[in-house]
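Annotators were shown the component list below and the corresponding predicted structure, then asked to write short factual statements about the assembly.
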Amino acid sequence: MNLSQVGETGLIQRFRRILGEGPGVIRGIGDDAAVLPYTQKEYLLFATDAVREGVHFILKKGPFYTSPATPYQIGWKALGINLSDIAAMGGIPRYAVVSLGATQNHPVSFYEGIMKGMKAMAKKFNVSVVGGDTDRTEKLSITVAILGTVEKKRCVFRSGAKPGDLIFVTGKLGGSRKGRHLTFTPRVKEARILTKYFRLSAMIDISDGLAGDLAQICRESRVGAVIGGKAVPLSKGATLESALNDGEDFELLFTLPPREAGRLIMKRIRFEFPTTPIGRIVPKKEGIHIYIGNKKSPLTGGFRHF
Amino acid sequence: MNLSQVGETGLIQRFRRILGEGPGVIRGIGDDAAVLPYTQKEYLLFATDAVREGVHFILKKGPFYTSPATPYQIGWKALGINLSDIAAMGGIPRYAVVSLGATQNHPVSFYEGIMKGMKAMAKKFNVSVVGGDTDRTEKLSITVAILGTVEKKRCVFRSGAKPGDLIFVTGKLGGSRKGRHLTFTPRVKEARILTKYFRLSAMIDISDGLAGDLAQICRESRVGAVIGGKAVPLSKGATLESALNDGEDFELLFTLPPREAGRLIMKRIRFEFPTTPIGRIVPKKEGIHIYIGNKKSPLTGGFRHF
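Structure shown to annotators:
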């Protein structure tokens, strides 16, 4: 059996079975961040995410992304994707450590540029980069691990969506590969506002495309979903296709019980960021579908890592 | 300026200047783990370390190591080096997250083997692997981040060594590349015993060779050191050269004030692991030296990452 036969999700499910769930762990493998005991009122959040040359950025013109990344952008993105994971739990990012796989192809100033981009992101969100590790590799990679905190009441899992809940996204989706994947702002503040005013039932950040990440919420919550293709807010010039499959928008996908959804729709005009209802949660047996015009089709896709 | 001109330590010093020290951080970049606020009596420890194909293990016969690693050994080592970092602070490892850079060259069972090795190490030390991330790469790499805790009184930094302190190591050094680097046991229990009975002034785990890691303690503590080549306890068949330069012994190098050192020398016969005095700390201006017979030479070396 090879990786493309089982896919990333299949692989992670296998790892989950082998590694098990440790004692005292509130939530282990299977969410945007692990949820761990902390104080009486708060949980500790712990996650890791990497950017790799040729996968998450390119250094020379290539087929996947439109433009090569600057060192600053690589550092910005490496920390940003981790902050996005903490945002998806409703939490506040606090501390990061960095594992740099460095190649001999670049001067010291190149690596300093990466750290400057990382520092800019850290400063914007009051995060401290407190340690790391540096090794030689053949292709550049930066792996960040992040610690955050969240009030127990405001912690949002992937697993809480119920049939009848409405599905929302922040911002606009699609076309991230043209450049926004290197300059995006993780939705930490937006998630904090949402969890302050509303009881979200589930949340995830959109890293693997709307189709892939909605499927994650559905699997963890044991539900189905139906979305409207026309309802998906698209970035300028982006196609629905790219919003569903490309990923790296780093917007938030979340669900709300109908009453809360109604409150959000009333209140959101006072927020400085857009939230858009795109569909609703249905029983698991109904599967995951998308309406394009009047035509209802099974929703598959999302970014394939292998 | 390229990486080999500044070396790993020079690079980290540059990163440290760019990234700064965050608010509330007890100890950031520059120790085995970052030390963060936690409870009234305890600190949180946070570190990351990676193993990379061709650097920390090989999959086919090669010049650096004697034998190829099994998947199980790779997983064992990937978590073990992180536990070793927590041990070097005197702490208890608690939770880990894993970032896997996977290649298409191996079947799913290969990656399951890695996770089985990691699980065995986790189980041995009651650590929970709580999350991770999987991506496609060209060369296999596993980056682990670890969270631990330590009583404030028992937390040992690299920076506390004072002239007059005695220098000790646990276990035996050298020859790790012949295979022990894949099967070692991190010295978590040993560190806990040492910090229970003695006031250690500084500690580090030996990952880059005795010469390199002693230099780290000396830089962080702003001191010099002198060690006796004959005093260094060697593994069976190992050379002093390999103990000084190869690294990956994952034993502990620590310092004690003279009175505490005397107590350790009396008490250690009751411990189930050897500790050996190998030298003493001297003022910074005297530098770092080694006696080989009656000849005193500057001690340089340690594993060079670039």
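Statements collected:
1. Residues 3-19 of chain A form the longest helix (17 residues).
2. Residues 32-153 of chain A form a domain with the 60s Ribosomal Protein L30; Chain: A; fold (CATH 3.30.1330.10).
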